[in-house]
Hints:
By secondary structure, this protein is an all-alpha fold. Helix 2 (47-72) runs antiparallel to helix 3. It is elongated, with a radius of gyration of 20 Å. It is 61% helix and 0% strand. The longest helix is centred in the N-terminal third of the chain and has 27 residues, at 2-28. The protein starts with a helix and ends in a 32-residue tail after the last helix.
Amino acid sequence: xxxxxxxxxxxxxxxxxxxxxxxxxxxxxxxxxxxxxxxxxxxxxxxxxxxxxxxxxxxxxxxxxxxxxxxxxxxxxxxxxxxxxxxxxxxxxxxxxxxxxxxxxxxxxxxxxxxxxxxxxxxxxxxxxxxxxxxxxxxxxxxxxxx
Length: 147
C-alpha cells in the first residue's frame, strides 16, 4: 500500500517537473530573443549607433510590454483589436526611428533580416520563434499569427 502511494507521488512529481520545464523552455524564446539587441549585429555600427539603437530598443520593448499586458488583461475582442492597432503603429514608428540611424548598407541588412524573417526583427511565428518578434509581418508583408 505504501509502495503504491509512493509510486503515485513520484509519478506526479515527474509529470509536474516535465511540464514545468516545458513551460520554462517555451518562455525562453518568446517575443524577445537577443535580449532586445537585435540591431547590434548590423554591419559597421559605430559605438554611438549601438548606444542609440539599444536605447530605442529598450523604449520600444517597454511600450510593447505595457500593451501586451493590457491585451492580456481583457477578454474584450474590440479592446484587443485596438491594442493590436496601437502595437502596429508603435512597431512602424520604431522601424522608422531605427532606420533613421543607419547607413544605406545597414538599412539593407536591417530590412533583409526583418522582411525575410531570417532571425532579424521578424522571425516570430507566433509559436515562440526567434527574433525581436515585434515586426509582426512575414516575408509577404502579411501579419503573422499571435499567441
